[in-house]
Amino acid sequence: MDAALTPAWWTDARLHVVSGKGGVGKTTVAAALAIALATGGRRTLLVEVEDRQGIAQLFNIPPLPYAERPIAAAPGEGEVYALAVEPEAALVDYLDMFYGLGRAGGMLRRVGAIDFATSVAPGLRDVLLTGKVKEATTRAKGGKRAYDAVVLDAPPTGRIGRFLNVTGEVAALAKVGPIKKQSDGVMDLLRSSRTAIHLVTLLEEMPVQETLEAAHDLRSSGLDIASVVVNMATEPQMSAGELDDIAAGDDPLKQISTGLKTAGLAASYAEPLRAELVDYARRFTVEQQARADLPSLGVPITELPRLHGQMTADALGDLAELIREQTGADEVADV
Ligand SMILES: Nc1ncnc2c1ncn2[C@@H]1O[C@H](COP(=O)(O)OP(=O)(O)OP(=O)(O)O)[C@@H](O)[C@H]1O
Ligand SMILES: [Mg+2]
Questions:
Q1: Which end of the chain is more exposed for a tag (fewer CB within 10 A), N or C?
Q2: Which of 41-55, 172-186, 236-250 has the lowest average pLDDT?
Q3: With the CA atoms of 279, 280, 282 and 286 taken in that order, what torsion angle do they form, in degrees rounded to the nearest 10?
């Protein structure tokens, strides 16, 4: 890809938010993106906020504590750190930062007061989580940023609108004061070009539908979509003409029967084979439709293949490299 075609999100964003329907590969794509962005001697932070330990599972390591630690290397001496943000710990952090709560925070936590506070006000929970993400994104020491980029393995599309629209959530909770200020600060970051929201999808009906809806939802709260990532894509095994033939009737069945006869195989195999073909044709039609629908969002689309076997460090590295190729990142690095 020409360097001039490198999307703005690759060069401008410091916070990357990765969402998508459940199970489409959010955690995998977020990790691959964190590796891609760390390539060439940069440092990135991969964050999760859902108490799921998805990152630890992916990297095959023990559960992550509420502390940033290196989890992977990227080509060219890049480093990927990871953090699992817990709402309770984030609240203690927050209270300590603003009110110097010190040890009282630990006490509150032990008596269950914090669990109470965050479950009573779910909006508060989200402000704390996004607040922590903002803190990591903007943290600097001696004029140097702690991380070149932060990648958030975010809640799924069904919840992403509420999760990111913290101002709306907090409006009922606090009209003035530090919580309001914090949520305004988070919103400023999310709405700026320093944030890129990526929606991961499969070429299937429901995930594409959710992607289109989430994009609409987010845009109506002033949040832009930076890119769509089509994950687990497979090479089309059929042409549109072949699809028409199948739709037109029994012709393939006849061909299969003849083929079986020629091969000396039982004709009873014909029906299950035809069913497979028809099933594939159906999926293929849905994929074609998805490929036709997604461009309506008007954002760059990255396509990652369905890899076979375990999601190893090498496999993640391959996905990261594919992301770099499709964003033209390597050309930028060469300039
Ligand atoms: N490109 C790919 N090729 C092959 N397998 C993949 C690919 N991307 C993800 N997977 C596999 O799909 C499964 C779901 O991926 P992942 O956990 O990243 O999804 P998720 O969207 O984070 O799920 P959840 O909604 O449960 O958090 C995992 O087993 C993962 O290894
Ligand atoms: Mg996940």
A1: C
A2: 236-250
A3: 140
Nearest atom in ligand 1 to the alpha carbon of residue 30 is 18
d(CA 22, CA 282): 23
Q: What does the domain layout of the chain look like in residue ranges?
A: 3-236+294-334
Ligand 1 atom at shortest distance from the alpha carbon of 156: 25
Nearest CA, atom 31, ligand 1: 311
Ligand 1 atom with least separation from CA of 29 = 18
Q: Which of 10-24, 56-70, 97-111, 287-301 has the lowest mean pLDDT?
A: 97-111
H helices of 48-204, where? Answer: 54-59, 87-99, 103-110, 113-120, 122-138, 157-164, 166-171, 178-191
Closest protein CA for atom 25 of ligand 1: 22
49: tokens are 């906020």
Pocket of ligand 1 (CB under 6 A): 20, 22-28, 54, 156, 231-232, 304, 306-307, 311
- Mean pLDDT score across all residues of the chain: 88
Q: Which atom of ligand 1 is nearest to the CA of 52?
A: 27
Give me ligand 1 centre to Cα 332, in Å.
Answer: 29
pTM of the full structure:
0.89
The preferred substitution site among 210, 311, 323 for testing ligand 1, maximizing ligand atoms within 8 Å of CB, is 311
Kindly give the pairing relationship between strand 43-48 and strand 69-74. Answer: unpaired
Q: Which of 140, 121, 291, 116 is nearest to 204 (CA)?
A: 291
Q: Which CATH class is domain 3-236+294-334?
A: alpha beta
Q: Contact 63/316 with Cβ under 8 angstroms?
A: no
From ligand 2's centre to the CA of 59, what distance in Å?
A: 12
**H-run or E-run covering 8:** helix 8-12
